[in-house]
Amino acid sequence: MSQQRMALWAAEALDEDLQDVDLSLAIGNYGQSGMYDDVQPPQIDEGTLVAMQQHMAQQAAFAQIPDVVKRFIVHFHQAVLDNNLAEITVAYESGWNRLTEKYYAKTEWPEAEIIAPLVNDDQIFLILYRELYYRHVYSRLQPNIDDRFHSYENSCELFNYLLNSDGPVPLDLPEQWLWDIIDEFIYQFQSFCVWRSKIKSKSDDELTMLADAGQVWSSYSVLNVLYSLIQKSKINENIVALQEGKSPEEIAEIVGEYGVRPLYRMLGYFSIIGLLRVHVLLGDFTLALKVMENVELNQKAPFTRVTACHVATYYYVGFCYIMLRRYPDAIRSFVTILNFILRMRQYHTRSYQYDQISKTADRMYALFAICNVLSPSRLDDNISNIVKERYSEQLSKMSSRNSEEAIPAFEELFLYACPKFMSANPPPYDDPAALSVLLAAEPQPDPARRHLGLFLADVKAQAPVPTLRSFLKLYTSLDAKKLANFLDADEESMVQQMMAMKVATRSVSRVGNETGLLEGTTISTSDLNFVINENMVHIAESTVGRRYAGWFIRNTEHAQRVYDGLRNSPLPSAPQKPSQQPTTSATDSLAAPLSAGGLKSGGPKVAWGGVKVGA
Amino acid sequence: MASTTSSWIKPSTRTDLIENLVSGVDRYNPSNVGILEDYLYHQIRSQEYDCLANLAILKLYQFNPELYNPDVVVNILIKALTASPFPDFNLCISLLDERTPSTNLDEPDPLPSLLPVLTSLHALLQQCKFPMFWSTYHSDDLETLRDNYTVECVGFEDAIREVAVRAVKAAFTKIGSERLGSYLDLQGSELEAYVSRLGWSLGSSKNVISIPSNPDNQIESTVVQESIKLPQLVKVISHAAQA
């Protein structure tokens, strides 16, 4: 199987397709020379032979496709041709997944070449089909090196079509799908980089292909796509114009022929979020937040329309804040989205994205636990209680005064919850000597470990804080010598620890209406404050009264919803009436308010993963 | 401590040319690395600092390993040290991907031996162990760093003193002059001159220095009561109005 596909790939004029990737794209063609030069076209005879074999194999494969799948593909194709968003959504969110469960849970969908006759060889549809095909391979099966190269090639074809056609393309796709296209593109990039960096387990064929990989899944090529979509759609200009309150006509003028089309607008928007993610994966936390400078983080922002995007945005923003040592901002970010996920959960547990979202949520609970140890806050009791329940063991270890106990706990949670970091560049596959040096290296370089080390350095600088705090809480003033005695330390090192504690209880944080995500003001994050007057330590403690409002407001709103629901229900029909008529009408009208009334007031307005048509 | 990050995001000394590189897509163009490197050396000479522009250099090195210039990296890290307790140093290290040892440099790469040194200096600053910072910094082991790098960086030692000053200012109302001297690596008349430049007052006995009050060295016990804002109640009230 893989041999046959290898031949297919070699027979196509791959090199041209790949070099076409970033025609006139945003950030230029840096370092893209000399790729795929050495893919030799196969000998003619062999080529003909292969083509014939392929033809026969394709016919056999075509015959094996179940009729229902064929009908689905024809129908899906028609929906795309008609730009019928509702039909596309049904096919995309429901049909594809149902048929996957039924026929392709453990195998690939039929290859695009095989189903081509069903769709009149419509190349655009086949690109979209391959997008789904490879996504399925990545999520359900193990992609081999051919899959990885081909999925890159197909992404490039798709983006080429979108960006380099004559003018905007007349295609409409559901927002969910548009997000998934960007999300999957970055996922496959990250998956490739991680796989590529593991040099020990590569076969000879793989080594050869990787040595010649050129721009395949290079950082530049991926960034090029994202920046091009942003520029083509003029999405940043669009957001700014919206914020300035410009009229729709003025905005249309500003964003031009591409930006007015929902397809480009949303792709541009999602590309900003995609950039946020790529920059985090590459360890550039400031740039990650900088590209988001026009995006407002609130519940009305367009990214909230696709739940997966909404969740990802807050996860990556929160993580950036951790690495910028802005724990209060990180906590706020996680609390916002975790509460949102809790509220949405009841409606969406069956969504096909639910697993992914709940995994991200679990990671954010872990990150919240870390932040809350480093910068305790009482921002949200609801989330803290869940975290206390879930990570009680790690929480007590992390707050331990014994760093041999604390550090491994931080390490465990960080490695579990951090993004899948990657190296920007491949190992030197094209230089066997350098590669063998690297092969011998122990331990193998691991970007996640590097970031962990930096994070732990911050943690270690804060290590004396819990001990100091427990003593300071007992006094309003005490002699520095006495405190040093308690700590079993000399006075000078105690004073240095106190200064470090002061630093640790200050943090840059957004306090209100800052424009960019990087903006912020220094705030105090601790309820315990102190000052040293030569040899005396003075301590003042602020007490924060218990917060009741949130709880009462939530419950009042809930009570109102229940009350509305009850009031909208019909009175129960009297049981002694024998007639059929009232009973049916009672059940009918009982069902209606439960679904409509229950959701309408105060209920979330965003569907899990966008539109729920025909679920 | 700076009360806002805006001068960090965009220092007033940043030119339009650099601003375009930092904020636009031209930051990815390897042929611009020279402009940014020149700007770094300008910062080294004239006591300016622009973290985001320096991160842009490291980004170009990350994507184009052939551009890598270890001297530039060391200078960037030295500059970032002086920003402590802000996380600049770690943000720079985050962008230094693992390098394969066989890079074709004319001279041996100084970074692998200097990186642990700089990292330990940074840790000392983070932990406010200023006397140990100075003794480490002046030790024979660090001669390479001093003679080849920090000597070129105008005002490096004063910038480190600023780090100590920020920490002292936040934690003390009065501090013994001997102690402060050990944090600033200054004694006698030098210390007095430095202290008076800061506007701090030396007591009559010259043993104790008073530090003017600032938001961080004033303490007060407070009770924070919950304050409920109208927008929180909008749903409840509007519902009541409808009912």
Describe the model.
The complex is a heterodimer of chains A (615) and B (243). Among the domains of chain A are: 2-209, no CATH class; 342-463, no CATH class; 464-556, Arc Repressor Mutant, subunit A. Chain A contains 28 helices and six strands. Chain A has helices at 2-11, 14-19, 44-64, 67-81, 85-103, 112-115, 123-140, 145-164, 175-197, 204-211, 219-233, 235-243, 248-259, 262-281, 285-291, 307-323, 327-348, 354-374, 381-390, 392-398, 403-417, 432-440, 447-461, 465-472, 480-487, 491-504, 549-568, 580-600, and strands spanning 477-479, 506-509, 521-524, 528-533, 536-541, 543-544. In chain A, strand 4 (528-533) and strand 5 (536-541) form a beta hairpin. Chain A is globular. By secondary structure, chain A is mainly alpha-helical. Chain B has 243 residues and is mainly alpha-helical. Chain B folds into two domains: 7-97 and 111-154, Alpha Horseshoe (Serine Threonine Protein Phosphatase 5, Tetratricopeptide repeat), CATH 1.25.40; 172-243, no CATH class. Helix content of chain B is 57%, strand content 5%. Chain B is built from 13 helices and four strands. Chain B has helices spanning 6-9, 16-23, 33-46, 51-63, 70-81, 88-94, 111-126, 130-137, 143-150, 156-171, 177-184, 188-198, 230-242; strands spanning 172-176, 201-202, 208-210, 223-224. Chain B has a three-stranded antiparallel β-sheet. In chain B, strand 2 (201-202) and strand 3 (208-210) form a beta hairpin. In chain B, helix 4 (51-63) runs antiparallel to helix 5. The longest helix of chain B is centred in the middle third of the chain and has 16 residues, at 111-126. Chain B is flat, with a radius of gyration of 23 Å. Chain B starts with 5 loop residues before the first helix and ends with a helix. The mean pLDDT of chain B is 87. The interface between A and B is large, with 84 and 70 residues. Chain B: One of its GO terms (molecular function) is ribosome binding. Chain B: One of its GO terms (cellular component) is eukaryotic 43S preinitiation complex. Chain B: InterPro entries: ARM-type_fold, CSN8_PSD8_EIF3K, eIF3k, Transl_init_fac_sub12_N_euk, WH-like_DNA-bd_sf, WH_DNA-bd_sf. Chain B: This is Eukaryotic translation initiation factor 3 subunit K. Chain B: Residues 69-210 form the CSN8/PSMD8/EIF3K domain.
